[in-house]
Amino acid sequence: MSAKSSSGVPKNIRPMNARKKVGVSGDSKVSATRAVRQRKAASPRTHASLVNGNELIKKTNNLKISELVERLSDEILILLFSYLDAGDLLVAARVCRRWLCVSNDNMLWQSMYRRCLLKTKAGKDIGIPLDTPTLFWKKKCIEKSVEFRNSRAQANLNSIDPFTTLPKQISGNLQQLGVKFTLAFYDGRGTHHYITHNDCFYHRMAVSARWHSLGNLPDVSRLHSLKLLALNPVFYDQKGIACKNSPCQRSLLEEIPFSWSKLTSVDPIGSDSMVDLYLIHPGVVMAAWKNGGGMAFISANFHYNKLIDRCLCGTFNTRHVGSAGDSLSSIHGFFDYNATVELRNQRQTIWSQQFRNIHAINQPGYMHTGHFCKGRIRANHNICQ
């Protein structure tokens, strides 16, 4: 029979939660000490690697970011550039010469072409040479993007407003295309100074743009020419919205000789207590601060007639002319025409009236460069004289 403890439990039976006390002999202590010594003997190699790693991190932190980027191979740069869209890729090309060469790689732009343009009608019609030269896919991508943009801009212009006889969707198309109007002042030192419009208001027959952030211009006496340009984005996303960093095509709308002394020497067309208004070109008004304070703002009005073509199809130095349209008779001039007259300010239309069956003979005093100029409108009688 087994001996029992005072609690009645046999001594050879131990509860599950009871802990067993294990004694450590002298041999076990010696073996454990040897193991520790062996690990310490092997540790100098690991310690040295950690020290070298820390030194490498310190050296890396001391390097400039430009030096780290320069150490990247072309293959890694191409892989990184493949995550950029077309606009960002063109921005990267302006960083340095090496990035310019890498960003022109045909593989990058071929991938961009397949991703953005292959499903479009413009992107399907393309001839690929056997040996693709450098910049082939980049040029094709930009060329087809411009073609796709222009065709999409003309798609919604078939609906005509019966009152103005102009396409209804011109203002919507201009806003969807992301067109911006820009001033380009040319000074005597051969430098262009660009200013994008601050305000833009779309009306029934025209769009008005205004520039009032003119503080960065040089002395107005040095300016001697002015260009009004339309900036048109080249790349768009799948929803048809212009990409944020997309490059823009510049199209000349008007080129105006500019002489501050000559402009301010004539009588202003209007004034108030702060500014005088001067007409520097048909549809373009400049406001000058009184007492020789310089330019306050410039306002320009662009009629919707063929404005889409003028914005998209011109160049920096050449205006888009297009077809001549309706030709005037050398004898009869205007015959059975309708004229819509609109009186408005910068923001809103105040009065609008249409005059039908207008006739104007082509004689001196009545016609000037194809425009009817012998007219006077009396709004209170609704007649045209």
Question: Can you tell me about this structure?
Answer:
With 385 residues, the chain is an alpha+beta fold. 31% of the residues lie in helices and 26% in strands. It has helices spanning 26-62, 65-70, 74-81, 86-92, 97-103, 106-116, 121-124, 136-154, 170-177, 260-265, 307-312, and strands at 180-187, 192-196, 199-202, 206-211, 223-233, 248-257, 270-271, 275-281, 284-289, 295-303, 334-344, 349-360, 367-368, 371-372, 377-378, 383-384. A six-stranded antiparallel beta sheet has the order 3-4-10-9-8-7, with no helix packed on it. Strands 2-1-5-6 form a four-stranded antiparallel beta sheet. A two-stranded antiparallel sheet has the order 11-12.
Order of helices and strands: HHHHHHHHHEEEEEEHEEEEHEEEEEE
Order of strands, main sheet, comes to 3-4-10-9-8-7
Largest sheet: 6 strands, antiparallel
Radius of gyration, CA atoms, in whole angstroms: 38 Å
> What is the residue-mean pLDDT, rounded to a whole number?
76
Span of the ends, CA to CA? 139 Å
Strand content: 25-35%
